[in-house]
Amino acid sequence: MIEKDFIPSAYNQTITEGKVSYKSPSNIALVKYWGKKENQLPQNPSISFTLDACATTTTVSFKKLDKLSDNYSFDLWFEGKVKEDFKPKIVTFFSRVAVYLPFLKAYHFTIETSNSFPHSSGIASSASGMSALALCMVALEKQLNPEMNDDYFVQKASFLARLGSGSACRSIEGDIVQWGKHEKTKGSSDLFGIKYPYVVHDNFKRFHDTILLVDKGQKQVSSTVGHNLMHNHPYATQRFEQAHDNLDKLIAVFKSGDLKEFIAIVESEALTLHAMMMTSMPYFILMKPNTLEIINKIWEFREKSGSNVCFTLDAGANVHVLYPENEKDIVFQFIKEELIAYCENQQYICDRIGFGAKQLKMNA
Ligand code: DP6
């Protein structure tokens, strides 16, 4: 598939009004996307576990306008309230996807959205939010063109979600999604995420992710600023190569179920992401003292117990604690007894691998 394959030919249906709704999850990267080119194309391939509990639910009501709008015509409601300050993000998204969704100016949209996790949790909502919105838009397009097949539907939703936020393209399906051209992964593309196409050992089925909310504040570095730090970064080339190598290694790990090697790759990726931020210009430290306390506790516990618990980080201070299903009791007890004390207001979210976005039925 290339970009122009996502530009539709004329629609064969006319729809004057309706409503579509999707619940779409967040995801946690194992190999990180950090650095992008023009048009939201990644500098390196990445792979993630789709999550289950952390999700955005978006409902789009649409009504045909008498004439095309000059700009995009929409209202935005977030958790039951009109939210003017989210509108510029949607306008940017609409202008990036307009050529692929030629109906955008023909309708007025009411977009109602809400998150399952608290807004001020430091959890990025761009992946779940942009994927939910992209899915609603493709669902509307499918009403205009009912012949659209399921594979195309999913690919287009991922393609559009990527234009909203890179990592969002990994939130449409589960349970493991790869995005970005990688030589050894058949079907991989910079344009959209694909379901990981090879064998996955039972050790990785239903993995847990307990998210420790170390710092619930606003992100210190926006993703746009963050990704830009990789332009002219002294270690960029090596970093992008490393991501390819780690994906090569993960193919073998997913097949064999080697949890020790999995831990080594995942923790190294998390620390490399933060190392990139510490060695860019300007430089940032996004970990907090409690992030390091938690990491050290996890290492101590692993040493002592032989458990396969590990951590990963996104571009902030919160810690994602990852562990296999058959260790859930001992690790959760360890988390409660030793880690929760390092969280802001002792807050954490119990999540696990999920299976992708779901359409919600609308009452007519
Ligand atoms: C550290 O997808 O939020 O979470 O494309 O600018 O919206 P934009 O960036 P975004 O970046 C996510 C970065 C990351 C790593 C990852 O999810 O792969």
UniProtKB/TrEMBL annotation:
GO biological process: isoprenoid biosynthetic process
SUPFAM superfamilies (alphabetical): GHMP Kinase, C-terminal domain, Ribosomal protein S5 domain 2-like
Keywords for the protein's UniProt record, in alphabetical order: ATP-binding, Lipid biosynthesis, Lipid metabolism, Lyase, Nucleotide-binding
Protein name, entry field: Diphosphomevalonate decarboxylase
UniProt GO MF annotations: ATP binding; carboxy-lyase activity
Residue ranges occupied by any Mvd1 C-terminal domain in the UniProt entry: 211-341
Domain of life, source organism: Bacteria
The UniProt record lists the keyword ATP-binding: yes
Gene3D superfamilies: 3.30.230.10, GHMP kinase, C-terminal domain (3.30.70.890)
